[in-house]
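stuck on this fold:
=====
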Amino acid sequence: MLMELTELKYKFKSLLFPDRSLGLHAMITSCGREFRQPGDHYDWYGLQRGKSEFFLWQHTISGTGRLRFLKRYFTLKPGETMLLPIPHDHRYWLPDDSQGWEFIYICLGGREMLRVLQDI
């Protein structure tokens, strides 16, 4: 199926789950696989993602992305993963010098999940 999506030039495939406000102890709110290429506008600022608390786990498959977290800058390469609290003062994006960025991601929420991830 992934090969079919790639051949059709799909840039992402995502699953969205029920509203984050269900109050469950742990839940996945969305997950997917994306490929961003030069010319795509892909730029997320962690304080502009709404007021709901959740964590983003994002793993780089190929290409490179950039992350600013706690006043430090990182280049995200294949095999590297970021775990980000939201809302939070951070930014991640597809830099101009990247040949593309392919990644999988999971957004995690719920009281217990937030507690555990805060401890990490």
